[in-house]
Specification:
heterodimer, A: 786 residues, mainly alpha, Transferase(Phosphotransferase), domain 1, Helicase, Ruva Protein, domain 3, Cyclin A, domain 1, three-stranded antiparallel sheet, disordered N terminus, B: alpha/beta, Leucine Aminopeptidase, subunit E, domain 1, 3 domains, five-stranded mixed sheet, 50% helix, 16% strand, disordered C terminus, protein kinase activity (chain A), Rhodanese-like_dom_sf (chain A), Rab-GAP_TBC_sf (chain A), Prot_kinase_dom (chain A)
């Protein structure tokens, strides 16, 4: 079985969270000749480990084996490296550490450049105290600048390194025994002097290298195209050295048409196809972590992370300026370039029993259950499902396929998302659920995110307060992206203004799409009208008031006792629920709770958030009932721990147990227009507040009254006088005469009495006279004429 | 504005066309005018593009370059628009965004967007390359000119130092120091069934020291009594001169005795230390080859003198614990303990259990720290420090140097530190003191104290008694302490709440409450701050109130209400418990 491995290297010393964020870009780089970066993990005490693709062979091993190199082979190799380098150049990345050990060879013998992100992610070496690169291959201008570095490093330094490597290959002059413990220091000085002396070389550098190593014959015999190429790479004066992209276009490489690399591929050991190995590395790494993989644990096991007991290192004088004296350096804080392959056995054994069919689930034909996750796993709680390797494997494969078939498979996606959303693909699934499509990138680019606007100040104040416990969002890159997103939103929505809270709303999208601002923006732009229509108007009073009034009514509907208690102590929703709804709970919960909550929220309609609020109240019910006004305020000012799993399932249950019309708001985004007399009409805020119970529309009412429905789902109480009731009444209704005529305010009063007695699920029929006159005759009981 | 445009026009050699309007937009100043160039008419567009201040550090090298693009005017192809804008190199913006921004604000025809994007990209790339080459070429040219070998030597040296000091590959492999070997041996032993033996051994040593201290105190007492008696007699019988000489001889005698005892104690401790270390290392080496340690331990019967159980002369510590959650969305849990006790009594080891705790965690990643205040003028001779020394003296210090010696090594550090300060703080106004300042802090390590492995002695002066703000050096010192704690795995910290050890007359209730509030507020802020530093979390923080009878009951109540306010409790259940604990305390 062919195994991919990852290596991770670790190092410590003055890494700030910043560089890790900049390094996020590395994860997006994809090129056939580059090893991809998978993750950069920050451990305790700022130890950073990098996880990336690794191949077992590198150029240095082959050079040590004294292989004879044909000039064509060398050119081929150089060409591939150059392709990778020019890709890096296009992405503004300088390798700076190019050496034979960092040129790995893939399974088919192709070049795989390694460790190319170190210089980039360390902010051109500024964030770390250690020097980057092997001195033997460093360009002279780097060494001349000293360890503190030059202000701007061009990609030409990599060309020098490439020239050095090429020269070693062509001259057959491999460095002897690179890793003798004591010899390192001696070699270090020697290689430094060697490179520095080349500065004064007046003729050809290549010739001089050949002379120094006694390989003049090899130099003389060298293929002239190769010699010219290497000599141009080894120009001491940087401006005379070509950049990777320039060199790549040179005619030397014309002979490479579509010839594959001849460096020798690894014969495949077995005929059995490695299905898992064909999945993307990101996916495998995610599953590997689920299967118990732990990068830092692995490093520790291999003896890489070994700290001195901290008490031995602590200094004995601490100045006011924060400087330590007398502290000893823990050797574990040095840069450690060692590579540790991460073992894949446990993941493979975990997925051993997965049939090959499971890698290709059918999405058009009926499912075959044995190919998918087992039925028992599907019933486990979400938290366990999210940690289950096999289950996540199936879900990722399925959602991956569905995403590829989206929007054609939108309905299926909705159905599957109801079960759960695999955390790994959450960003893409959310975008699909929010119907984000079209030229997302282009639209985002067109928005002006730079020009100062009056809201900038407020945005700048808010960002450093928003979900700052998260490493990504608290970094300076995170802040910059945050600001761009918010400014784009403000510019893109001239009808709205920036309200505090939109920052929290933006956070989950930015967190998920950290490397894809455009998608984050598109999601945010789609989310706001769906759930928060009108909330960000300059004057949003009416919208918010209506929302809260409906919320209060729903509370009364489901939790009459609690509602009456809160009313009695004057603890109205205005005092606590505005941040809940304005930010869709993203202001009150940490990200790891918002994500599963929103998984569910995105499937619901614009009224769903109301039920989440209700579910929260329900969880705090006992505390609230036993508290007075002040305690309640204190309780909500810092929301206590809420069980999110319970909260989501509660809110779904509550949502299903509520007539649609009870959640009617005139300001919500309408998908269909319902304005017959059988529907609920808009009420003024005052009316909304006066009536404690929600209203049910004639349409919903009649549906519930259908004889086919469960008998217990509705109990009609008719409060008209006896004689009117006797004339005509609804099926199964009970007459409790309370008023003359059909005065609605009387109905409200009656409902209040019911509420005071703790009767749940009371609602008032809207427009009852019309309904009773025009409804289906089968639903009525008429007085029999005697 | 008119003046400015005229200036601009002059600068850029523009003929101002009075007919056309100039206007100001958020993008800066835009100017439309006719411009003659190569006998062809250009319409000239100038703009200064603002961009967000990049967050990159200031020392980043950058230059500015004027980007110019011309294109035919849409309505009159014989005219040309010239677009000119100043760009920063290296260009950190995105070219397509800049292009669409320019088009939007300057109302340029939209069809040029692709050309514009491309030409910005190329321009930026070229300029960057030119600048990179310029810098690198300069560097090489300079080196070629200088044929001085000293230059190269110093460069090579710099690089060697950099590689040696920072990269494991080049770092000379250091053997484990004695300290580390001992630490490892000890840590292994105390986490094995040998623990009991080890502790007994240490206990025995402490007892020996304690015995000697008691003997010394007794003998000195005796001597004092005897001398007093003699003096009494002398006063009655002898002349002044004789009395003086007697007094002198008494003094000498006493000092001599003290010195004798001191040296005896010292030699006892040194022997103990040496023997114990050898014993422990031996023990661990013997234990190592055989996995089953439990089989070994009964053989190690040490002769242990009976340990006298010390009666606890301190009153039970009055205390309350709270669980607090800090942070706005993500809550971080910490324990807060509030207690009324003497700071020094806290670290005095009272028995086996405390010692077990200290020894188990000594080389772990869960250390305990304690903050003591010391006078700035004479740190090592001040009264609180003396008392602290006495407590240290009682136990046997096997792991670290005796506290006096730790202090001695500090003096040289202090000299270095002051020199560093002189070099680095020259811009600060005011004279810099020749010795350490308030807010500086020295650190001692201990293995024989209760509640503390690391003791921070923070220097303060008289200003601590006055009204201080959150910018007082002592408060900043506390911030450093929290920061250090997080870097060195000190997960539990004890701080005197009022920043003094003893109550005095000036400390009114108002003063105390104000001070407590300040300390709570600041420490809370620092704790939130430390959470983002990636060190270890501070799990427990203890605030200690000076122990004063009668006043305390009332005071603890008030402090509590501040604790209440400062750390807004989040979890309702916990808060109820807190309340109960808190009211429970009141009724006692």
């Amino acid at each position: 079985m062919r195994q991919r491995c990852w290596r991770s290297w670790s190092n410590y010393s003055r890494w700030t969270p910043e560089n890790r964020r900049t390094a996020q870009k590395l994860k997006t780089l994809k090129h056939p000749y580059l090893c991809s970066y998978l993750d950069i993990i920050r451990g305790k005490h700022e130890r950073i480990s990098v996880v990336c693709e690794l191949f077992p062979r590198n150029l240095s091993q082959i050079m040590a084996g004294n292989k004879k190199w044909e000039s064509k082979e060398i050119l081929l190799l150089l060409h591939q490296v150059l392709e990778a380098l020019s890709y890096l150049e296009a992405n503004d990345i300088v390798h700076r550490a190019l050496d034979p050990e960092n040129i790995l060879l893939g399974w088919n013998g192709e070049v795989k450049l390694f460790n190319y992100g170190l210089y980039y992610m360390t902010g051109s070496g500024k964030f770390v105290t250690f020097p980057i690169g092997q001195p033997r291959y460093l360009a002279p201008e780097i060494l001349l600048a000293g360890p503190q570095g030059i202000p701007l490093t061009s990609n030409k330094v990599d060309i020098w390194s490439l020239g050095m490597i090429g020269a070693e290959l062509a001259l057959g002059d491999a460095p002897s025994s690179p890793h003798s413990a004591g010899g390192n220091m001696v070699q270090l000085g020697r290689s430094l002097r060697r490179v520095l002396s080349l500065v004064h070389c007046e003729g050809s550098v290549l010739e001089r290298l050949a002379r120094e190593s006694g390989k003049e014959i090899a130099y003389e015999k060298m293929d002239s195209t190769l010699r010219d190429l290497l000599e141009s790479c080894l120009s001491v004066v940087p401006s005379k050295r070509p950049a990777p992209s320039e060199l790549l276009n040179s005619s030397v490489f014309d002979f490479i048409a579509d010839q594959e690399s001849q460096l020798g591929s690894v014969p495949k050991e077995s005929v059995k196809r490695d299905y898992l190995g064909d999945r993307s590395l990101q996916e495998i790494f995610y599953l590997w972590q689920l299967a118990g993989g732990d990068v830092h644990g692995e490093l520790r096991r291999q003896g890489l992370v070994r700290r001195r007991p901290p008490i031995l290192s602590i200094g004995n004088l601490l100045l006011l300026e924060g400087k330590h004296f007398g502290a000893t350096r823990d050797p574990a804080t040095l840069y450690d370039p060692r590579v540790v392959p991460l073992p894949m056995e446990s993941l493979y054994s975990r997925l051993e029993n997965v049939p090959p069919e499971s890698y290709f689930p059918l999405i058009e034909t009926p499912e075959i259950s044995s190919w998918g996750p087992s039925a028992e796993t599907c019933c486990l709680p979400l938290v366990i499902r999210e940690k289950d390797t096999e289950y996540q494997f199936h879900r990722i494969i399925l959602f991956d396929r569905l995403l590829k078939a989206w929007p054609h498979q939108h309905a299926r996606m909705l159905r599957e998302a109801k079960q759960d959303v695999p955390p790994m693909l959450r960003a893409a699934v959310w975008a699909a659920l929010l119907n984000v499509k079209g030229d997302v990138e282009g639209q985002y680019i067109a928005l002006d995110k730079e020009t100062p606007t009056p809201t900038d100040r407020q945005i700048e104040v808010d960002i450093p307060r928003c979900h700052q416990y998260d490493e990504l969002l608290s970094s300076s890159v995170g802040h910059l992206k945050f600001k761009r997103l918010l400014k784009a939103w403000v510019v893109g929505h001239p009808q709205y203004v920036y309200w505090q809270g939109i920052d929290s709303l933006c956070a989950p999208f930015l967190y998920l799409n950290f490397n894809n601002e455009a998608r984050a923006y598109a999601c945010l732009a789609a989310f706001v009208p769906k759930y928060l229509q009108g909330f960000f108007l300059q004057d949003n009073w009416a919208v918010v008031q209506e929302y809260l009034a409906v919320f209060a009514r729903l509370t009364a509907f489901h939790e009459p006792v609690l509602a009456m208690h809160m009313r009695a102590i004057a603890f109205v929703p205005e005092l606590f629920a505005i941040p809940w709804f304005l930010t869709m709970f993203s202001h009150v919960f940490p990200l790891h709770k918002i994500l599963p909550l929103w998984d569910r929220l995105l499937l619901g309609d614009s009224s769903f958030p109301l039920f989440i609020g209700l579910a929260i109240l329900r969880q705090l019910r006992d505390t609230l009932l036993s508290s007075g006004f002040n305690e309640c305020i204190l309780l909500f000012s810092d929301l206590p721990d809420i069980d999110i799993g319970k909260c989501t399932s509660d809110s779904v249950a509550l949502y299903c147990a509520t007539p649609k019309s009870a959640t009617f708001r005139q300001n919500s985004l309408k998908t269909e227009i319902l304005d017959t007399p059988f529907d609920v009409e808009a009420q003024t805020i005052a009316e909304l507040k006066a009536e404690l119970c929600p209203r049910i529309s004639g349409r919903d009412f009649m549906e519930l009254l259908e004889p086919t429905r469960d008998k217990n789902c509705l109990q009609v109480i008719d409060i008209r006088p006896v004689d009117e009731f006797a004339k005509v009444s609804f099926l199964k209704s009970v007459n409790i005469p309370f008023v003359d005529g059909t005065d609605v305010s009387q109905a409200a009063k009656f409902a209040e009495i019911l509420l005071e007695n703790g009767i749940p699920r009371v609602c008032i029929l809207h427009n009852p006279t019309y309904v009773i006159k025009h409804c289906n005759i089968k639903l009525l009981v008429r007085q029999q004429k005697l | 504005m008119g003046l400015l445009t005229r200036r601009l026009a002059m600068c850029f050699n523009v003929v101002v066309d009075k007919e056309r309007k100039h206007f100001v937009s958020t993008e800066g100043i835009l100017y439309f005018g006719l411009h003659c160039k190569h006998s062809q008419s250009y319409i000239f567009v100038f703009s200064k593009v603002y961009r967000m201040k990049p967050n990159a550090p200031k020392e980043d090298h950058k230059i500015e370059a004027d980007f110019i693009m011309t294109f035919p005017a849409p309505s009159a192809p014989e005219y040309y628009y010239e677009l000119k804008t100043c760009l920063e190199i290296p260009f950190k913006d995105s070219a397509p965004e800049l292009a669409s921004r320019l088009i939007a604000t300057l109302r340029l025809p939209h069809y040029i967007i692709d050309d514009l994007t491309e030409s910005i990209e190329n321009f930026v790339k070229e300029k960057l390359k030119a600048e990179q080459d310029r810098i690198a070429d300069e560097m090489v040219a300079k080196a070629i000119k200088q044929k001085n070998s000293d230059q190269i030597d110093s460069l090579v040296k710099q690089w060697e130092v950099a590689y040696k000091g920072e990269v494991t590959q080049y770092c000379s492999p250091t053997a484990l120091s004695d300290e580390e070997l001992f630490a490892e041996a000890y840590h292994q032993l105390v986490h094995s069934p040998m623990l009991d033996n080890v502790l007994k051994g240490i206990e025995a040593m402490s007892a020996q020291v304690n015995q000697m201290v008691t003997l010394r105190d007794a003998e000195i007492n005796q001597l004092t009594l005897k001398q007093e008696r003699e003096m009494q007699q002398a006063l009655e019988a002898l002349t002044e001169e004789q009395i003086n000489s007697l007094a002198n001889s008494h003094l000498e005698h006493k000092e001599m005795l003290l010195v004798q005892w001191e040296s005896r104690l010292d030699s006892l401790k040194t022997t103990q230390r040496r023997e114990a270390r050898a014993w422990l290392v031996g023990l661990s080496q013997q234990a190592q080859p055989e996995q089953n340690l439990s089989a070994l331990w009964p053989e190690f019967e040490l002769e242990i003198p009976k340990v006298q159980t010390v009666s606890n002369q301190f009153l039970p510590i009055m205390q309350e614990s709270f669980t607090i959650h800090l942070g706005s969305q993500m809550k971080q849990m910490h324990n807060v303990r509030l207690l009324a006790s003497d700071m020094l009594a806290l670290c005095d080891c009272q028995g086996q259990t405390q010692r077990i705790h200290t020894s188990l965690s000594l080389y772990s990643n869960e250390l305990q720290g304690l903050v003591l205040f010391t006078d700035c003028q004479s740190p090592s001779t001040s009264a609180p420090f003396g008392a602290f020394q006495n407590i240290c003296e009682k136990g046997t210090e096997l792991h670290f140097l005796p506290v006096e010696q730790q202090l001695e090594s500090l003096t040289s550090q202090a000299r270095q530190a002051i020199e560093w300060r002189l070099q680095n703080n020259d811009n600060k106004s005011g004279a810099i003191r020749r010795n350490l300042q308030p807010g500086d802090c020295y650190v001692t390590k201990h293995s024989s104290l209760a509640e503390a492995h690391v003791v921070y002695h923070i220097l303060s002066d008289d200003s601590i008694m006055s009204d201080i703000t959150s910018r007082h050096p002592v408060i900043l010192g506390l911030r450093n302490i929290l920061k250090t704690s997080s870097a060195y795995d000190i997960t539990s910290l004890t701080i005197p709440l009022l920043l003094v050890h003893e109550m005095s007359e000036e400390m009114t209730v108002v003063w105390c409450t104000k001070r407590a509030e300040l300390v709570f507020k600041c420490i809370k802020g620092f704790m939130i701050e430390t959470a983002s530093w990636g060190g270890s979390e501070l799990k427990t923080i203890q605030f200690v109130l000076p122990k004063v009878e009668n006043k305390n009951q009332r005071f603890i109540l008030q402090t509590n209400s501040f604790l209440y306010r400062a750390y807004r409790r989040i979890c309702s259940r916990v808060s109820v418990q807190c309340c109960q604990a808190y009211f429970g305390c009141l009724t006692h």
